[in-house]
Design goal:
The chain has 378 residues and is α/β, with parallel strands linked by helices. It has helices at 3-8, 60-64, 67-78, 111-120, 155-167, 178-189, 228-239, 243-253, 270-302, 323-331, 340-345, 356-370, and strands spanning 24-28, 32-40, 46-55, 87-91, 97-105, 130-138, 145-154, 171-176, 197-203, 208-214, 217-224, 308-315, 335-336, 346-348. It folds into two domains: 3-176 and 338-370, Nucleotidyltransferase, domain 5 (2-Layer Sandwich), CATH 3.30.420; 228-331, no CATH class. It is 38% helix and 26% strand.
């Protein structure tokens, strides 16, 4: 099987009431590994039969360059859990893959060839040195142009990643990308809402991604220069405090409404500290909103003006107290803080160990990966 087909490989959807577990979704974040495995139930629900969120020292790049360390991490992450089998679907490391939108004339009949032709003009070297995949964004028969979201990664990087997974005792069923996994997750949450536009703000230590899901379509995915490390550094510089102290302040006090404070923490109470943090960080959030508004212009053009229905915060941003309320005030759109839809759809067999709700912001991609083959991938 070629790498092109392996990346695009589809698993035949399981019967909706089958008791057979699905694939293990594997997502390697900046400093943690997330695993999730589901079993389909009746009425479009799923049981989480196993999940794991395991931190590791050093960077993701260091981990991926040490097969021995990765194998040890997999052993630690799965020990004592209820994972069934070793067949995984894994996200390609974000640093190794590029995702772009491509438009082509609707009259094109061989879309594969056209995508490869367009990408060959954008990559360094020979296109044959890359693994390529794409998903349709716009393909209405009445449109003059169609749009796809194309992803591509160096073949050597993909081969190295596959070898590392195999050496760790895993059987690789398929590879995926983060926005595709999130599309799958949102699709099962709003299966009856075909026109819902959902924005996901996925914030990591060093970057953030804005992803728009429209109904069951992956409409947009773009990195933006907003990150938790950026927020920590800005507060550290303003208050002349070490980053670890700043992290403690932000996650303890959170972000409150501004009430006119200066940048001194000496005798401030909890509310004053929160106000001060927000005063320092609000410009960064306003810049993020500017990026979001640019994305929404494209979204409106592709969905005939349908507005956002809701926003989800994922990653470290979701952990900052007050972040949901702040984003809601800046966007004037519901920003989900207690996503009851998740609890209605996903039943957790592991609440006695670590609650699903406590891991939701970080486990979203792994859960979307685990859904592969358990629903139609359209």
């Amino acid at each position: 099987m070629s790498f092109f087909n392996r990346l695009r490989r589809q698993q035949k959807p399981l019967d909706s009431v089958s008791s057979k577990p699905g694939l293990i979704g594997l997502d390697i974040r900046s400093h943690s590994l997330h695993l999730c495995q589901l079993r389909p139930e009746a009425n479009n629900r799923f049981t989480i039969i196993a999940k794991s969120s395991t931190g590791f020292d050093g960077s993701r790049e260091q981990l991926l360059n040490s097969p021995k360390a990765f194998k040890s991490l997999i052993t630690r992450a799965t020990r004592g859990k209820n994972f069934k089998g070793n067949k995984v679907t894994a996200i390609i490391p974000p640093d190794d893959v590029r995702i772009i939108l491509l438009s082509y004339k609707a009259s094109v009949t061989d879309v594969d060839a056209e995508v490869m032709r367009m990408l060959s003009q954008r990559v360094k070297g020979n296109i044959d040195d890359y693994v390529v995949d794409y998903l349709p964004v716009r393909k209405n028969s009445t449109d003059e142009e169609h749009i796809v979201m194309a992803s591509f990664a160096l073949r050597s990087k993909v081969e190295q990643f596959l070898a590392m997974l195999t050496d760790a005792g895993l059987q690789v069923h398929s590879l995926d990308i983060g926005p595709s996994a999130l599309r799958r997750l949102i699709s099962v949450l709003y299966i009856d809402d075909k026109t819902s536009n959902v924005l996901l703000i996925n914030t990591a230590d060093d970057s953030s991604f804005l992803t728009i899901i429209s109904g069951r379509r992956l409409l947009f995915d773009q990195p933006v220069s907003f990150s938790c490390n950026q927020l920590l550094k800005e507060v550290s510089s303003s208050l002349d405090l070490p980053v670890d102290k700043v992290s403690e302040l932000i996650f303890k006090h959170g972000l409150n409404s501004i009430s006119g404070t200066d940048h001194k923490l000496g005798s401030l109470n909890q509310s004053d500290v929160s106000n001060t943090l927000l005063e320092i960080l609000k410009p960064a959030f306003l810049s993020l909103v500017e990026e979001i508004n640019r994305v929404l212009i494209f979204t409106a053009s592709e969905t005939r003006g349908i507005p956002l229905s809701r926003v989800y915060l994922l990653g470290c941003l979701a952990r900052i107290p007050g972040s949901h309320e702040l984003m809601m005030s800046l966007l004037d759109v519901p920003v989900e803080k207690y996503p009851t839809e998740f609890y209605d759809i996903f039943l957790d067999d592991n609440e006695k160990t670590v609650s699903w709700s406590n891991q939701l912001p970080e486990m979203a991609i792994a859960t979307g990966l685990a859904l592969r083959g358990l629903q139609p991938d359209v």
